[in-house]
UniProtKB/TrEMBL annotation:
The keyword Signal applies. Keywords: Hydrolase, Signal. It comes from the Bacteria. One of its GO terms (molecular function) is hydrolase activity. The keyword Disulfide bond does not apply. The lineage of its organism: Bacteria, Pseudomonadati, Pseudomonadota, Betaproteobacteria, Burkholderiales. This is Glycosyl hydrolase. Residues 1-22 form the signal peptide.
């Protein structure tokens, strides 16, 4: 999920020429499946302090599982047996009657899908009445042909099952200098493929994080730092204006607390603003990276850790509370 976007040079691209499909606002955090994963049962667990805790708490409305990598049908979730992982977690979410999204790719791996049979096997492995959708996180320089394979199969699935929510997660800038600088070439490749296959029902999920140095070409400035709340909303406006993507097909995913890039810090005040304005702007959804980072760091943790947000004044669970229950 962690990526510093590179400058885009391509011309304006349109997602689709037809009327925009409306999408319900969907809130769900990402869960790093590799963190606190029980190897014996294959069950995901939640990180609480330095220990594992029950994942499916009553206030958790839905969850995005991250990330499956490899070729579809043969995908992996780290070192845990894939079928054991799927069976254990699908059963747990069905029993709890909790929606879930299966996310693929990510910063540390890629996901490809070269055959219809492999895609069918992949889908069947995680399918249930509580499967909310699929998310394809494109960060590892998949080729244009590999991206097109994913888009083609996802578009066909969405036509067959229109209730499924299918998103493509890409990096973005949030230029505040009038240039509308936003997607990098990889994101633009995704857009071209979506247009080619007429997939205007897809949701473009913007990683509103790690913009780079605090400059107007990268983000909205506040006291020589990137204003992460304002920049997230600026990124959505830039993508909508430059590429013709309706706001109703854009979702946002910030990274809590300290981002990889110094001076890119997503605070609780940013969360409060984003929670309110994302809904008011008619966006498709709001997510965050990640469930396990929603707590201050213990002594000895690095500045950027998958286990915490590095903001000592913010108590555990506060980001979830603010982002989920915006007034």
């Amino acid at each position: 999920m962690r990526l510093i976007a590179t400058l885009s040079t391509a011309a304006t691209l349109l997602l689709g020429s037809g009327a925009a499909h409306s999408a319900e606002f969907f809130f769900a955090p990402y869960k790093d499946a590799s963190l606190m994963l029980d190897p014996a049962s294959g069950r995901m667990q939640r990180l609480a302090g330095q220990a594992a805790a029950q994942l499916l708490q009553p206030d958790l409305p839905a969850l995005i599982w991250a990330f499956a990598t490899g070729e579809c049908g043969q995908e992996r979730w780290g070192e845990v047996d894939t079928d054991r992982f799927a069976q254990a977690n699908v059963a747990a979410f069905v029993q709890a009657q909790r929606p879930y999204v299966v996310s693929t790719g990510g910063e540390a791996g890629s996901f490809t899908c070269g055959t219809d049979a492999g895609f069918a096997q992949f889908l069947a492995r995680y399918d249930s009445p509580f499967l909310k959708g699929l998310d394809f996180d494109i960060e590892r320089q998949q080729t244009a042909a590999q991206i097109d394979d994913l888009v083609q199969r996802a578009a066909a699935l969405q036509r067959q099952r229109p209730a499924l929510r299918i998103s493509f997660t890409v990096a973005t800038y949030a230029a505040a200098n009038g240039s509308q600088q936003s997607l990098n070439p990889l994101g633009e490749t995704v857009l071209r493929s979506l247009r080619r296959h007429g997939f205007d029902a897809a949701i473009l999920n913007l990683m509103v994080m790690n913009y780079g140095p605090a400059q107007p070409a990268h983000c909205v400035l506040r006291e020589a730092h990137c204003d992460m709340g304002a920049s997230a909303l600026q990124a959505a406006r830039n993508v909508s204006g430059k590429y013709g993507v309706p706001m109703s097909r854009i979702a946002l995913t910030p990274m809590l607390g300290e981002n990889d890039v110094a001076h890119n810090v997503f605070t609780l005040a940013d969360a409060q603003r984003l929670a309110q304005e994302a809904r008011a702007a008619g966006l498709a959804g709001l997510h965050y990276w990640s469930l396990d980072r929603d707590q201050p760091c213990a002594a000895g943790e690095p500045r950027v850790s998958p286990r915490c947000h590095a903001l000592p004044q913010v108590a555990p669970g506060q980001f979830f509370k603010v982002l989920h229950t915006a007034p």
